[in-house]
């Protein structure tokens, strides 16, 4: 167990005793929302969002994420939401 894990165990808001259950549930739920790797080319018109445009957007979001020192989960959820929106 690392030092940060030991610190997390002292913080009651991290609910470390439920970590295993939380991640197991997240893995199950993830299967429902998987996207095809080529979803942009299949679902979008060529004049709409291209893969390079998505890459620039995600790069900018990463810069903002670093500037505000956000949690890694925030970045993952943000990119997930963008991909889900673009897949519609």
List the helices and strands and how they pair.
Elements: H1 3-10, H2 19-30, H3 39-43, H4 51-67, H5 72-87
Helix pairs in contact: 4-5
Tell me about this structure.
With 88 residues, the chain is mostly helical. It has 2 domains: 34 residues, no CATH class; 53 residues. It is built from 5 helices and no strands. The longest helix has 17 residues. The radius of gyration is 17 Å and the shape is flat. The model has no long low-confidence stretch (mean pLDDT 82).
Question: What features would you highlight for this structure?
Answer:
88 residues; 5 helices; flat
Uncertain runs = none
Mean model confidence by pLDDT:
82
Radius of gyration: 17 Å
Number of discrete helical segments:
5
Which structural class matches the secondary elements?
A: mainly alpha
Distance between the termini: 42 Å
Elements, N to C (H/E): HHHHH
Largest sheet: none
* Beta-strand residue percentage: under 5%
Overall 3D shape: flat
Would you kindly provide a brief summary of this structure?
The protein has 88 residues and is mainly α. It is 66% helix and 0% strand.
């Amino acid at each position: 167990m690392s030092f940060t894990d030991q610190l997390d165990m002292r913080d009651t808001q991290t609910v470390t005793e439920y970590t295993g259950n939380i991640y197991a549930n997240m893995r199950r739920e993830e299967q429902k929302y998987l996207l095809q790797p080529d979803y942009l080319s299949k679902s979008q018109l060529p004049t709409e969002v291209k893969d390079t445009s998505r890459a620039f957007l995600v790069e900018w979001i990463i810069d903002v994420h670093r500037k505000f020192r956000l949690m890694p989960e925030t970045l993952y959820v943000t990119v997930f939401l963008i991909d889900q929106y673009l897949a519609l």
